[in-house]
Amino acid sequence: MTTSVIVCAYTLNRWTDLQRAVASLTDQTIAPDEVLVVIDHNDELFETAKRTFTSATVLNNAHEKGLSGARNTGVLASSSDVILFLDDDAYADTAWIEATLRALEDPSVVGVGSWIEPNWEGGEPNFFPESFRWVMGCSYSGLPPAGGMIRNPIGAGMALRREVFTQVGGFSAGLGRIGTTPLGCEETELAIRYSQHRPDARFVHAPDAVVHHFVPRARLSWSYFLRRCWSEGLSKAAVAKLVGATDGLSEERRHALRVLPREFFTSLIMAIHSPRDGIDRAARIVLGMATAATGVLWGTLSLHGFTKPVKGSDQSSTWRPLPIVQMDVDETIPLVNMSDSECTRAWVEYWRGERFVGRRVEPVVDGVIQPSLLPTLQLGTPSSDAPPPPLVDSELPWITVVVCTLFQNPELNVRALNAIVTLEYPKFDLVVVDNRRADGGPLIEDWFNPDTTISIKIVRELYPGISAARNRGIFEARGEIVAFTDDDVVVSEGWLRAIGERFVRSPEVAGMGGLVLPAELEHEAQLWFEEYYGGFSRNYSLEIVSPETGKADPSYPYAPGRFAAGANMAFRRDALVSCNGFSLTLGTGTLSRGGEDLDIFLRLALAEKTLCFDPLAVVRHSHRDSKRAFRRQLIGYGGGLTAMYTELICREPRHLWRMIGRAPGQVRNLFRSRSERSPVEEPSFPRHLRVLEAWGAICGPWWNIRARQAVRRPSDEDARTALSR
Description:
By secondary structure, the chain is an alpha/beta fold. 40% of the residues lie in helices and 19% in strands. It is built from 23 helices and 21 strands. The strands form three sheets. Strands 13, 14, 15, 16, 17, 18, 19, 20 and 21 form a nine-stranded mixed β-sheet that branches. An eight-stranded mixed β-sheet has the order 3-2-1-4-7-6-8-5. A hairpin with a 2-residue loop joins strand 10 and strand 11 (355-365). Helix 7 (222-243) packs parallel to helix 10 (275-302) and helix 20 packs across helix 22 (689-710). The longest helix has 28 residues, at 275-302. It starts with a strand and ends with a helix. The model is unreliable at 175-184 and 303-313 (pLDDT under 50).
């Protein structure tokens, strides 16, 4: 039998690994007849490989980007009876090809799975369960002995007869890793497809055909582990859709019912002698299985088109951007003409003077908006909503505006900063906190150097996380009021004046939030955000809640989202210092992923401070523009919420029983208020997105516990000292 070995590569970051992989093929006891190195759409890597691997055939992926396309390119270019596949970050034992061919001496065997031995960076960890080595692309406990049948081989080291491809085609183009995205199962789907075509065909395990697969230390993190389990669940759902759930999930059911429980109890016994390793191993088994199962469920519900090639945008074919139109409810003109004759919907914001009173996605017929919400809003009394006369400048407080940034999108971030420095407010300064840990990115000063008399300070905060960055902003603040907004926000012209006047008119208020509206609705995911959450803001009326009035609300103070989001909030500086600033174990950039803005309002409420929501303080936020980013945001928001509650309970356990008693009502009110705030009658977002948020909420407590272990929480005195000038 002649042999071809295909090695696929996509990045120069693995160049050393790729060299070792190709070198291992030149030292085989039975040399391959040809070696093909397929480069996945990376011109620099292609040129480097072509110069280096002179004894191999170096090809560019001739199909769509991804591992499946690269492998198919190699198969079409090969000419041998047996085609072997080796990952670019793996290397083969000298007898790998010989042991593989020995297993193929049986004519009923059409595929061979090697034993994939993990090559751990830094040594093998005791806490990682052997039954989950598939997370690393390695062989795992529960595989059959030599010659035993397997459903499919592991892609890092496998062999298939050419007839597999000639009879049922190549790897599915909608499956397989694309770059660093850990999706896969393309070899699973191909093996099942061939087994259904030829039921007597056998795929067998050859544990003496050994391949060593490099496992970097970073893959031992909980985030990678859970992300990989989730991705595997999605991939299995896609496979099940193609070949049927019975065949597609047969091995997973056996593994979950037989192998995992056995190792789980073994891990509990280990915990007696090594508590940390044993508990970690047991937790990975339980959470890994739950994550993969949830991924299968979500994938089954949502990925009906997942295995089809996706080119370019993730928008639906019928999607058109929504223009944002503002209408005054007291105007006599009931209709507004649209210049785009093909536009069928518009995002209509209803205002009464300076006050926002509602929004709705309205139909557009023949270029004319049909404002269905207008008659209802016109029934209101204009004079009752009239704002009070403005204060004179001398009465307004000094405000420090703090913007924290990673400066990942300079154009968007500079747009946010320019909107702030052009505000007409008599007394304010701007503090920009650069929270990047690594050097080498674009300098903020090179992009943002406005001609203004406003005091601007750009500081670097190396401690990761938005909470640390905001605390640095508090430390640098000159004003008695500290206002926070995000680097993807455009503030309105009257934003600072609304904040300043609120703190003067309501001297009892310690913290406040304002209205957050969309900056644009160019992408479908941005509308999904408004549909799903009903926007950032919970209402459009002034709301001041004191300790006395809060007692009338059964959810108070455990539902702080009614006041603000981090994109638009402001506080008296002394109130922030008195409660030790933002928690370093919450927020974006920490293991908890979010919840720091809710936590600061919750702690102020528990300290019996008066809080406020003022819709006159308006900003516009650029929502996530891709569906993938929105899904990540859902998980982060769900996890941030429960992480915040976990932190509260860890600080003060007495709150647990109060929260349990109020939880059912709070959950009902949450979903009812979201439905009532939705700008559309029939939301377009997939209903199963709630599973993602729920999954984040399940993970949140664990994330926060890990965050608290990783961060030494400063004492109250130390925290107040750090925030003081």
